[in-house]
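Render this sequence as a predicted structure.
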Amino acid sequence: MCDHRDSMPRFCRRGFTLVELLVVISIIGILMGLTLPAVQQAREAARRLQCQNNLRQLGLALHSYHDQHGTFPMGSSSDRSPGWGYAAFLLPQLEQGNIYSALDFAQSDCCAAIRSQQQTHTLDAQSRGFEFLICPSDPYGLEVLSDGTPGAHPCGNVTPGNYLGVSGDRDFAYQGTTKGNGTFFSRSSTRVEAIRDGASHTIVIGERGLPRDLIWGWLICGGTEYEQYLGTAM
């Protein structure tokens, strides 16, 4: 505004009109509309990179296990669920030796062993959300399947993972992949030499997708198909 009572000339200032304010708000809205998708794409690219790093870390751990034991870890310690999964045997190679030492592998029923640990408030691997077993793109990646959920094995509180071992190229329709022709299946002891196409040309671990029921992907302790490993035809 101008003060005309003053004899000295001064610069006049005026406020924004309603039209100008609406134009500014519209421009800001357009800029945000252009920026937000780019931000979301950048975040998803970062999550995808983290998933790739997880798979790379698991691959290195598998080779380290093979160098030490002469075979890859078994897909499941039992041909009848529940059994210890490949991720349980791989914990020392993933710098989780203290948790590995707390697991009772002498207990064939891993669910009973895990529940006992949880009830006595001792260290257990089943309810922990290991970042290297969970893809950040999974919106349910850190959710816990509570003890007693219908349709679940009695393994206490369970945090599923995303990376299951590949048992082969056959769909056994819930009948158990104990005779899979892949790398991981019940009581498997696969050697690198047995992978005909070579380890660098063979899928040994695959993502389980993003199921909302949290029933699948029990990599430490659980059943067989869909929980600890999967077939490429499924």
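Summary. The chain has one domain: 43-231. The two ends are 74 Å apart (CA to CA).
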